[in-house]
Amino acid sequence: MLRNYKNNAKQRKRATAFMALAWLLCMFLISPPASAQGDVRINLQKKDITVVSALKEVERQSGLSVGYNDSALESSPAISLNLTDARLPEALNAILGGTGFTYEIKDRYIKIVPKPQDNRPRSRTITGQVLDERQEPLIGASVTVEGTDVGAITDIDGRFSIEASTGNVLRFTYLGYQPASVKVTEKAVYNIQLTGDVDVLSEVVVTALGIRREQKALSYNVQQVKSEQLLAVKDANFINSLGGKVAGVTINSSSAGVGGASKVVMRGVKSIEQSSNALYVIDGVPMYNFGGGGDKEFGSRGMTESIADLNPDDIESVSVLTGAAAAALYGSNAANGAIVITTRKGEAGKPKVTFSTNTEFVTPFVLPEFQNRYGTGSRGKSDGSTILSWGPLLNESSRTGYEPRDFFETGKVYTNSLTLSAGTEKNQTFVSAASVKSDGMVPNNTYNRLNFTFRNSTSFLDGRMRLDVGGSYIVQNDRNMTNQGVYSNPVTPVYLFPRGDDFSLVKTFERWDPARKIKTMFWPQGEGDLRMQNPYWIAYRNLRLNNRRRYMLSAALSYDITPWLNLSGRVRIDNSTTKYEQKLYASSNSTITEGSTQGYYAVADPQERQTYADILANVDKRFGDFSIVANLGASISDNRYDELSYRGPIRENGIPNVFNVFDLDNTKKKARQEGWNEQTQSVFASVETGWKNMLFLTLTGRNDWASQLANSSTSSFFYPSVGLSAIVSEMVQMPKAIDYAKVRASFSSVGMPYPRNLTSPTYEYDETTQTWKPKTHYPIGSLKPERTDSWELGLDLRLFKDLSLALSWYRANTMNQTFDPKISVSSGYSTIYLQTGHVRNQGVELSLGYRHTWRNGFRWESGFTMSANRNRIVELVKDYRHPETGEIINKDRLDVGGLGKARFILKTGGTLGDLYTQSGLKRDVNGMVEIDPSGGLVTVDNLQDIKLGSVFPKANLAWRNAFDWKGVHLSALVTARLGGVVYSATQAAMDQYGVSESSALARDNGGVLVNGRTLVDAQTWYTAIGTQSGLPQYYTYSATNVRLQEASIGYTLPRSWFGNICSVQLSVVGRNLLMICNKAPFDPESVASTGNYYQGIDYFMMPSTRSVGLNARINF
Amino acid sequence: MKPHKITTVLITLALVLVSCTDNFDKLNRKPYQVDNEELQREGYIIGSTLKGMQGLVVPTQEHLYQFIEALAAGPFAGYFGATVAWTDKFETYNPPVDWQNKTFSDVFTKTYPFYRDILNFTDDPVAVALAKLMRVAIMHRMTDMYGPIPYSKVLADTEGESLAVAYDTQEEVYRRMLVELDEVSAVLSENLGLGAEAFRKYDDVYFGDLAKWFRFTNSLKLRMAMRMVYADEAAARKAAEEAVAAGVITANADNAFLTVAENRSAMVFNDWSDHRVGADLISYMNGYSDPRREKMFTKGLYNKKEDFYGIRIGIDVASKDIVTGVYSRPVITETSPFLWMNAAEVTFLRAEGALRGWNMGEDAKSLYNTAIALSFEQYGVAGADEYSSDTEKIPAAYNDPLGTYSDKTGPRSRITIAWEDGDANFERNLERVITQKWIAIFPLCVEAWSEFRRTGYPKLIPVVENKSGGTIDSGVMIRRLWYPPLEYSENPKNIAAAVAALGGPDNGGTRLWWDKKP
């Protein structure tokens, strides 16, 4: 194979990479390594042949590779040859005779080089070895003498030998590593260590169980995000910073605001009833993500989650394993994909101190369109209602100019963090402290967090034993974290505030009641049908307080028994204690206080405990061309939750606003105890076999004993995976443009236990009747674990050196799902546990990257990601034979919840996100809306299913660009979501109350044109379609949206400005800066709950936030 | 260490782990809940299941109570009107789908787990009899609301439980329930000597007094018998006379009231303020200057004038905040027991039987007057004699204090209180009996609505907003509730048969089997 590499500074790097590849390919294609060049005979009789063509012919006949790197060779005059059975040197001398070039033969490679010239310094032979960070030899690394055409390639032991003179500079390059240069001195031997280039394809990534692997060996898609990318635009819940940076992941941030739980789903929703949310793994240990959820229809309590507690500054990198194969070793939850977080360790060398401070200003991002020209009242009159805005048109003097936006304040988030890293070769320490302090957009809403982290890594016994211990302590508190809903949600009265009233009057939300000697709520507008209260009263007198203490301790001990065998053990403990309090002050809405005029108090103490331990034996060995990396291990994971709560109204003769359990109404108080425990014990093994560093086969297997399966016939389950990865670019000749090409394929089957407690039935306490109530589900027969089978095919390419592409196709079938659909009440039960259900997710992920640094130091980095997933219910309940009764059950439709008249209905052939309604305006036989003689409209609720759409996106796109030049850094991320629908009950209520712009416009126009001919009174129309969370078909919107999600501009002030003591990076960052396109009256990417079947529903959801922040980072 | 040694260590460790899964049993059981074994202790399960069923006769759970009594049957009976600006609701004949599911499904799915448990866990004939009685007491209300219901086939055979069973026609349900009441009655009479101690702690109604349960059983039979009168008078008369002969409730001491730790239905009216007393009931009682009003309702306030104000039923409420202060609330507190059946009702039933010429032990007029007196006594109000001899007073026309919804037609009925002798006055006396019973059994909503449908009394004011889309005639008013979509999707074959048996479309305009008054 003939390589033409221009000896041109710009392309030198690429050329050397080609050399390296060429070398490897030679090694692969020709075996045994030839000692037999002498036997080669060349036959070539031709006139007017170019030198290059002649060399090609030599290459063909000899089977050796010929490489040259000077255009001068191409411009050499044509020659005539007459070679018969010529030996190789003879033939080459004949060809190169008049060109000024000569040749070198090394093993199977012929290198054409210029003839040495006499005026050059006298060169000598330099030798050495090229190693990687782990002291492993790098085979095929390219060594060149700068400014000359002299080059060499390292052998199987990473050794090289090259002619160079003192004063020359040797340059070492290897694909996937940062180039290194060394000046030749009097020394004759040079050992070079190359460090991995983090951004290229053969980087080392963290995979299952914290095992570090070269990316090229992986048979699945792993996307790594470095801490710089996460830290650039910080979020209190760092998961939100991942959005748009990896393909195949859908991240919906919480409407609960700063610190709220995010919904993270990879490659589509898989489970009908269990969670499809991604698994989080910290330093190789799965973390159970407590929290999330959040209130749905009525309540408004927003939730944070365990993962949100992490200090982003403690994170070294994040690997995103989107597929089940990637995660097969982590156990069941990994079927949903995993986010693998590697935290920072101390580094050897001089102490590094970093201080960063971040101030962020938060404002509402997307708000619905409001009106303020029609005032309080009903039917165009100002009497008749104190809360509706269907009153008369306001004139100049009576207009109050009320804008709901005025209620929101500019939220502020202050983040400060300090990290310290120091250590020697044998002992490294990392310490960090961080604080987040925030005031939300809603008055009196706060989220605060303090993180303290300590980590120490020590090695003993000449580095053969390593001990790594770490600990974190987190103090977190929040007040009034609100997601959506109507009870105690200030957004509801703010949006619906009657437009003829003066909002400034209600800003003084409480008035002194001289008789009661307390302040009581001022809210003459009334509660409407949505239990509304004064929004400021809600903010200051309907309090929800969370106070949390969490500690995490971990220890890992590793011992190298032999250079290739290592034993390790790890333990991780993660416990947290929370105190949750709810305080509703006297005169709050009596529905919410359960009737008390004195107030309401709730207190709960959720305790979360998780313990994980494992032992692992790791083998890493080479046998000639083969390498084996094997891991064998066992683990135990135990998660428990426990909560004691006490709640109730303060009794009528109790003291108002004294919040403790003593004075609660004895008949209405509720004391509760809840808890659960899950334990999984596992053994697992993984074997990765590599051949010549270009073909890898990985097999894994895991067997789980899960406590959920207690008492059942199947007490454990096994799940395997197999993957193949081939570096094609090292096996066959690729077009010149392709530097690296890898194809990969994998299959995995991941088992998952059915939900806990099913096999150990118990009776639940009913507080109303104060008795234990029996189960209402049909007796459970024998259950089997669920299973997700995934196939994945992928291609990783690196083109023109700067361009990278990763493409994956996957299909995942989740089968044997356990769920409890409703059955006919005539059975005497309400639900039945079934095991069937087959959901298929199929899709593609694409990430495209470009990165180039120009000679003047200008750097452009661009990344594009695209993911598209198709979710399909292949089977719901088909010919399911109930194991006890033998009855055959079929179901092709399942109502799994929703809000009001919008229902998530699962149907065979549909998706898990299909939203339907069965309600609509009554229509006549011609399909016309029926209007009765009095102008009224009739709603019917028993229509055939009307499909509104699926809440799932068809595709997600993101494009990130970053520019660096002389310390100036500029970046922007644009994300787009295509397809899917969302439903807004908020807009419906706004229409019903007459506060929406659409309702005002209809009044301006004298009514709403129905059936294309009849003008129906605006209030009649909007009451009919907007009442009780609305007729969803009028409030379903396309969820397609495009936004400028992140942008930042920064400047690094040179160290020299600060007397070389420190460098300072300053930046201005923004999130959700611009909505380029959006048709919904709210942010379609916001979710209120991380649970199933509430995505895409807006019911007075807190608006999503736009934030602009200032960031300073000082590195000492 | 040699590789094989390591493997040995790992395998040993794995085995150690495996053997640790013995405690999974315990781990997987929900803490703080009880299992079957624990429930058996001291016969707890008998008490909890019986009490559980007692909590469903009139639902004690606040939401279920609200759906069935306050939102659905209450307005249909003229008892309650909603104050919330819901535009879709039962009283405007267009309840949302999830409300429709509640009134039907929740009762079944809450009742049968208790019923099944008691059949499975005890052979005690009295316990089983009481459970059967509760099932009739719960389910006769269901058939009175819907018509055909699943009844005889539910749990018919504990061996072969089915996911969906057939419905019985209402006639079948009634006949079967009467047989079951006789069976219960027989068991109770055999065990009258048992003493209250045996069931005291399992019973929040009569606290183990089986004699009272016996009288309640016969009274329930009388109530159901009377309902059949226009459908099968002979059978109705036979059952009614049997019941009275066996012994029914005659004194307020025997009233069936469920005592609860907390009456959570009070929240619906007092705390949520979602309902106020209906215009119909207040207008009738205002017209009669009924002294029981003080005990039954709070006074509303309008223009600084305190009075008993009722809310017009079936309107589109513009503003809850305006109406809640004006209209009267029922006097139901956290400590109020739930009324199931009182001596007045039973005596009114006997009065109606006597009016029809049946042997009810006494003549119609005296039973009528006794019934009124029993109701006055129940409320601790004097003046029953004066009240029941009043020949002048008639119901008042409804005047809405807010002016919007006054009933321009005037009083819907001119019926006086005092009994009028003579066969010619049969219909007027019937109206009297039912009207006075309607007042006396407040707030027994389902029963009042059923009797209104059976007899056409009391005459109620039509709803203002009829959003049934033409299926319900405002003059005839709603005759039943329709089946929820869930049954159509999960039990399609049997629901089709049930609807066929209904004898009309599955909507609120179709009359039930016993709704046959000419």
Task: Provide an overview of this structure.
The complex is a heterodimer of chains A (1116) and B (518). With 1116 residues, chain A is mainly beta. Helices cover 9% and strands 47% of the residues of chain A. In chain A, the strands form 15 sheets. Chain A has a 23-stranded antiparallel β-sheet that branches. A five-stranded mixed β-sheet of chain A has the order 16-21-22-19-20. A four-stranded mixed β-sheet of chain A has the order 1-3-6-5, with helices on both faces. In chain A, a hairpin with a 2-residue loop joins strand 5 and strand 6 (109-114). Chain A is elongated, with a radius of gyration of 34 Å. The two termini of chain A are 51 Å apart. A two-stranded antiparallel ribbon of chain B has the order 1-3. A two-stranded antiparallel sheet of chain B has the order 2-6. Chain B has a two-stranded antiparallel sheet with strand order 4-5. Chain B is globular and about 95 Å long. The N and C termini of chain B lie far apart (99 Å). Classes of the chains: A mainly beta (1116), B mainly alpha (518). At the A-B interface, strand 33, strand 34, strand 35, strand 39 and strand 40 of A face helix 1, helix 2, helix 4, helix 6 and helix 12 of B.
